[in-house]
Amino acid sequence: MQIYQAIAISLGLGLLVGLQRQWKVSEIAGIRTFPLIAIFGTLCTLVGEDSRGWMCAAGLLAIAVLLTIANVSKIRSGDFDAGMTTEVAALLMFGIGCAIGVGQTGPGIVIAGIAAVLLHWKQRLHGLVDAMTDKDLRAVMNLALIGLVILPILPDETYGPYDVLNPYDIWRMVVLIVGISMVGYVAYKILGTRVGAILGGVLGGLISSTATTVSYARQTKNSPSISAMAALVILIASAIVNVRVLIEIGVVAPRLLSVAALPMSVMLLVMVIECVLLYLPIRKMDSDPPDHDNPAQLKPAIFFGFLYAVVLFVVAAAREIFGDQALYWIAGISGLTDVDAITLSTAKMFNDNHVEAATAWRVILLATMSNLFFKAGAVALLGSRKLLIYVVVTFGIAAIAGGLLLAYWPEFDAASFGGGKVMEVALAAG
């Protein structure tokens, strides 16, 4: 029964890819040939484990020879397309058939799905590449350099006092931050002029809420009439910072997320309500979206890595010397210009059992509030007076909400929030 199931899956995946190739009017292989190639790969694995490798290799060679003969015939007929997509897809489907034949069904299905999507997205992908500027290409290459070249060669060892400076861990945080920013940057580039105020604020918050604030503040200096719309974008970008922070906590310290999610979400909800109230009367207005810089530049990445290492060291030293209360002062200062560094360093210290969950999320929330004050200062220097009024009011309400959370939110540790404390209380009540 397992053999027949493997053949059926190979048939289905071959039909999927073959359907796409037939729709594109491929002369090499289509809706009949691709299923046969996939089934052939599966059959090559049924001869026994001792000969399986040789049979798969011989089958792959046979498929390659047939594809070569087909292309030679096309050359002689004067109808030759230099593209190799169908040929590579045929070889891939043979390999998928072999994988399914040896029980690797999951990877085979995933790879076939990816192949079908890539084949069908030809025009879209080519259009995306054609639309890329030199800056966009540098962003992709820099991301590859940051994540695929630099990260693997760094030593995964701890150096210095307080046992917190690990080059590999520090750069891994750089990759995380650059990756989040690149997601927003790519979405921004793909959507282009269709980015409205709401989406512009969301993507701006993912890329850089501070840069978004500065850009829109400058626009209002010459065009005060767009101050309300600019305030909305800035407020949305600042609200998304809370989402960004939750993502960072979830990646670095999932146990802390179980405690921090609710208070941080309350802060986010307050700012979302403000966004809705501000959006309703000005929803028909528009403004020019900013031209965001490449977020994967090497120098800023190195600078963030250095900043993160400094904050990580200072937080560990301050806690050791002055206790947990010193962390709030550090959060207030470092959060002015960068929330990510204090968020990641605090999450790491929680993972290392150096900071309690109740202290950790409060430190992070205080950093996000401090960042609001910094952006309000940037608006005061660069923006219109009308924009400043909007920002002071909306950020002031958010700051009050944050202060109430810091002061009155009940304290739970990660274990009790997961259910242990609840069960204890329930048993006591019973």
List its traits.
430 residues; mainly alpha; 2 domains; 18 helices; disordered C terminus; MgtC/SapB family protein; membrane; MgtC_SapB_SrpB_YhiD_N; DUF4010; transmembrane helix
In short:
With 430 residues, the protein is mostly helical. The chain contains 18 helices and no strands. The chain has 2 domains: 2-127, no CATH class; 133-426, no CATH class.
Structure overview:
This protein has two domains: 2-127, no CATH class; 133-426, no CATH class. The protein has helices at 2-23, 33-43, 49-76, 85-101, 105-120, 122-131, 134-153, 167-191, 197-222, 227-252, 254-282, 298-322, 325-334, 339-351, 357-382, 385-408, 414-417, 420-429. The protein has 18 helices and no strands. It is mostly helical and 430 residues long. This is MgtC/SapB family protein. Residues 8-126 form the MgtC/SapB/SrpB/YhiD N-terminal domain. The chain crosses the membrane at residues 31-47, 54-72, 92-119, 139-155, 170-188, 195-214, 226-247, 259-280, 300-319, 326-347, 359-382, 387-409.
Helix segment tally = 18
Q: What is the C-alpha radius of gyration, as a whole number of Å?
A: 28 Å
SSE order in H/E notation?
HHHHHHHHHHHHHHHHHH
Distance between the termini: 53 Å
Mean pLDDT figure: 83
Overall structural class, as computed from helix and strand content, comes to mainly alpha
Low-confidence stretches: 413-430
Tell the overall outline. Answer: elongated
- Structural domain tally: 2
